[in-house]
Design goal:
The complex is a heterodimer of chains A (184) and B (196). Chain A has 184 residues and is mainly α. Chain A has two domains: 95 residues, Orthogonal Bundle (Rna Polymerase Sigma Factor, Chain: A); 58 residues, Winged helix-like DNA-binding domain superfamily/Winged helix DNA-binding domain (Arc Repressor Mutant, subunit A). Helix content of chain A is 70%, strand content 4%. In chain A, helix 1 packs across helix 2, helix 2 packs across helix 6 and helix 5 packs across helix 8. With 196 residues, chain B is mainly α. Chain B has a domain of 119 residues. In chain B, 62% of the residues lie in helices and 2% in strands. Chain B has six helices and one strand; from the N terminus they run βαααααα. The longest helix of chain B has 31 residues. Classes of the chains: A mainly alpha (184), B mainly alpha (196). At the A-B interface, helix 2, helix 3, strand 1, helix 5 and helix 6 of A face strand 1, helix 1 and helix 2 of B.
Chain lengths: 184, 196
C-alpha cells in the first residue's frame, strides 16, 4: 500500500540519519529534530500547559536523545522513543516546580473510544484538556490523542496500569462535564 | 497556551486532534549550542564513539589478563630454567629475542629475523612436542596458546584503530614475548631426559 511504502521509506531514511547522528553528524541530527520537533513540542505543551516550559522540555528532550543515541535500537520507533524521553523530561520539570498531585485509586478497565457525540471545535477541546488535572491530562494525552495503549502510557508515566485507567476514567468524566457532550 | 493551527475545525474524536504543534520559534540554534558544549566536554567524541573506544580498551585489558593467567598456569605446570632438582638444566635452551620494549615498536619485534627464525622452528616442532606431554598439560598449553593468539588478534585490531598508541604496542610486544616463552617451555619440557 502507498501509505505503508511511504512509512517504510521514512523509517529507512530515519534509520540512516540516526546512524549518521551517532557518529557525531549534527546536520543529520538537525534533520531528525526538524522531523520530530512538532510532535515532541505538542506533547510537552499538552503535558506542561506552559509554552516556555514546553520549549525547555523540547530542547532537553533532544539533548537527552543526542546523549543516548547509542542506546536507541533502530528497529523501534524513533517517534515513540522521543516521546518517552519527552514524557520523562516533562514529568521531571513538573516535579521540580512542585506540581505533584496524588493519583486516584485504581479502577477496572473501561472501553475507551474517545469519540464525541457532537462535533466540537479543536480549540474548545484543547482548552478543556488543558484544564484537566495533570494526572488525568497526561493519561488522556498519551492514550486518547497519541494512541498509546494503557500499558504503554502507564510505563511512560511511571504509574500502574490500573492507575492509568483510573486517570482516564476521571478525564472522561471531567471532559463530559466541561464540553457538555457525551464522550464515548 | 499556543493553539494548534486550524483551531476552528470541528472534530468528533480526540484522535483527530493535531499530534504536531510547531514551536513558536526555532529551537534548533539553542539545541545546537548545547550539543557543542557536550562535544567539547567529550573531546569531540559522541557517546557511541566513547563507548567503542572504552570497549576496545576493556577487550585488550581482558585479553592481556587472560594471557597472563594462561602463561602463569602454563609455567606452573612446565619446568622453568630454574626448575626442581628432578629436572636437568638445559644449557641449549634457545634465548628468546628480547628487544627493548619501550624503544621498539611491535613491527620491529616481529620483523626481527632472529625472532622469526626461532618462532618458526618452535612452531614446526610444537605438535610433536605437545604429543610428548601428558594430556592435562597438553590441554592447558593449547588453551594458553589459543588465548595468546586471540590477544594478538585483538591488540592488532585495536592498533588498527589507533596505530600510534604506545601502550597497545607495548602490550602486543609483551604478548609476542609470552608466546615465545610458552613455545620455549614446551620445547624444553618435552626434551628427552627432562621430564615434567
Amino acid at each position: 500500500m502507498p501509505h505503508e511504502q511511504a512509512e517504510d521509506t521514512r523509517v529507512d531514511w530515519e534509520g540512516a540519519l540516526v546512524q549518521r547522528a551517532r557518529t557525531g553528524d549534527r546536520r543529520a541530527f538537525e534533520r531528525l529534530y526538524r522531523e520530530h520537533a512538532g510532535r515532541v513540542y505538542g506533547l510537552c505543551l499538552r503535558m506542561t500547559r506552559d509554552p516556555q516550559l514546553a520549549e525547555d522540555c523540547t530542547q532537553d528532550t533532544f539533548i537527552n536523545a543526542w546523549r543516548a543515541l547509542g542506546k536507541f535500537e533502530t528497529r523501534s520507533s524513533l517517534s515513540t522513543w522521543l516521546h518517552r524521553i519527552a514524557v520523562n523530561v516533562s514529568l521531571a520539570k513538573r516535579r521540580k516546580s512542585g506540581r505533584v498531585e496524588s493519583p486516584p485509586a485504581e479502577e477496572e478497565a473501561e472501553a475507551c473510544e474517545w469519540t464525541l457525540e457532537t462535533p466540537v471545535e479543536v480549540h474548545e477541546i484543547e482548552s478543556a484538556i488543558g484544564e484537566l488535572p495533570e494526572g488525568a491530562r497526561d493519561a488522556l494525552v498519551l492514550h486518547a490523542l497519541y494512541g498509546y495503549s494503557h500499558i504503554e502510557a502507564a510505563q511512560m508515566l511511571g504509574i500502574a496500569e490500573g492507575t492509568c485507567k483510573a486517570q482516564l476514567h476521571r478525564a472522561r468524566k471531567l471532559l463530559r462535564e466541561r464540553l457538555s457532550v457525551e464522550v464515548n | 497556551m499556543t493553539e494548534p493551527s486550524n483551531t476552528d475545525r470541528k472534530v468528533t474524536s480526540l484522535r483527530e486532534l493535531p499530534h504536531s504543534i510547531e514551536p513558536p520559534h526555532d529551537l534548533w540554534p539553542g539545541i545546537e549550542t548545547r550539543l557543542g558544549d557536550i562535544r567539547t566536554a567529550a573531546d569531540g567524541a559522541t557517546p557511541a564513539q566513547r563507548r567503542a573506544v572504552r570497549m576496545r580498551w576493556l577487550a585488550a585489558a581482558a585479553m592481556v589478563a587472560c594471557v597472563a593467567i594462561g602463561v602463569w598456569v602454563g609455567r606452573g605446570l612446565l619446568p622453568g630454567p630454574a626448575g626442581s632438582g628432578t629436572v636437568a638444566v638445559n644449557t641449549s635452551r634457545p634465548q628468546a629475542v628480547q628487544p627493548p620494549v619501550n624503544a621498539v615498536p611491535h613491527e620491529v619485534y616481529v620483523s626481527d629475523p632472529r625472532y622469526q627464525e626461532q618462532r618458526a622452528a618452535l612452531v614446526r616442532e610444537l605438535q610433536a612436542r605437545l604429543a610428548a606431554l601428558p594430556q592435562p598439560e597438553r590441554d592447558k598449553v593449547t588453551a594458553s596458546l589459543q588465548a595468546i593468539e586471540k590477544a594478538k588478534a585483538d591488540l592488532e585490531q585495536a592498533l588498527g584503530h589507533d596505530p600510534s598508541n604506545a601502550l597497545l604496542q607495548e602490550l602486543l610486544v609483551n604478548t609476542y614475548q609470552d608466546e615465545m616463552r610458552v613455545l620455549t617451555d614446551v620445547h624444553e619440557a618435552s626434551d628427552p631426559g627432562r621430564g615434567i
